[in-house]
Specification:
mainly alpha; 320 residues
């Protein structure tokens, strides 16, 4: 047993090193797009006072989220090379994700499909703030149901506001049995709602303090044009999820909030959140080897490989 544990930890160390090198190389080639603005912010934070952090973040990257901005300030103040600093967080994110997959006995090929996944590559390269929200979400996934788990979930939107989209789905899945009792027996058990108290207080307090910077960012999201194709993509994902899952009722609850969200906020960010949720619940159900899900993951890996090609060809993750 001890040998098995040590061997698995060696694999994690190898994964950490591999992702670090991969991240550093990709970020070295990713000289355009979002990284132009993130590098400007990092350079500006090197000479900034603590009180100037959020103003710089909001003006240079439209970032109202304090966790990312303050972590970047620490790195800049310590004079870390930005690509090395970010690559450490990238490696940590993927290593923790692999710990989660290992705990849920994911097949070996899933690790390969994850590391080449389009959205994972987006997190490692252009979606710099979002990666910190995902790091907290993955850490929460690795922790048992405790106040610490609830606190990490509550903190995730302050890595990136996009994580707010995920919280209603997670809560609905958590009270699945209570919803069944309400629908079938007209009984409501309020015991689970006590776990909302700490996250709700944290979110309310921070939103109240940061409303002037959060509101403009939210309005930018709401004002973007949406299309019916984005809804169709979500419908296709829902079909895949309902075919693959063992618990269709819970999966339906998880995906229901995504439909109004995609109309308000747009398909790219909401579909990424929806895919994350589907992947999480199929992982804990040990359903990652379902053929229809594997086909979907292969599709996103092909998109991921193309993204790497575009980074090398164009200096950013988009063709042309």
């Amino acid at each position: 047993m001890d040998l098995k544990i040590k061997r698995s930890n060696i694999y994690l160390a190898i994964a950490f090193t591999f992702v670090f090198i991969k991240s550093y190389v990709l970020l070295g080639w990713y000289t355009g797009g979002d990284q132009v603005h993130y590098h400007k912010l990092y350079d500006s934070l090197a000479a900034a006072n603590f009180s100037e952090i959020m103003a710089l973040s909001l003006s240079l990257v439209s970032g109202a989220e304090p966790i990312y901005a303050h972590l970047m300030w620490v790195g800049a103040q310590l004079n870390f090379d930005k690509n090395i600093y970010i690559s450490i967080f990238n490696s940590t994110l993927i290593t923790v994700l692999f710990v989660f997959l290992r705990a849920n006995k994911a097949p070996f090929f899933i690790y390969i499909l994850v590391i080449t996944n389009f959205y994972v590559l987006v997190l490692l390269t252009s979606a710099e703030r979002l990666k910190f929200a995902y790091l907290m979400l993955v850490l929460a996934a690795c922790v048992a149901a405790t106040p610490g788990k609830a606190l990490m979930l509550a903190a995730s939107p302050f890595g990136h506001l996009q994580a707010f989209i995920m919280l209603p789905s997670i809560f609905l899945a958590y009270i699945e049995s209570d919803i069944k009792n309400l629908v079938l027996k007209f009984k409501l058990n309020v015991r689970n709602f006590k776990y909302l108290a700490l996250p709700a207080l944290v979110i309310a307090a921070v939103v109240a303090m940061k409303i002037d910077s959060i509101l403009p960012k939210a309005l930018i999201y709401l004002q973007q044009d949406q299309s019916y194709m984005e809804v169709l993509n979500l419908v296709a994902l829902t079909f895949v999820a309902l075919v693959a899952t063992r618990n269709r009722f819970r999966m339906t609850l998880v995906l229901l909030p995504m439909f109004p969200a995609v109309q308000l906020l747009g398909g790219d960010r909401v579909n990424m959140i929806a895919i994350t949720l589907v992947f999480y619940y199929l992982t804990i159900e040990h359903r990652l080897n379902h053929p229809i899900l594997v086909l979907m993951l292969i599709y996103f890996s092909i998109r991921g490989i193309l993204r790497v090609k575009w980074i090398f060809n164009y200096g950013h993750g988009y063709m042309g």
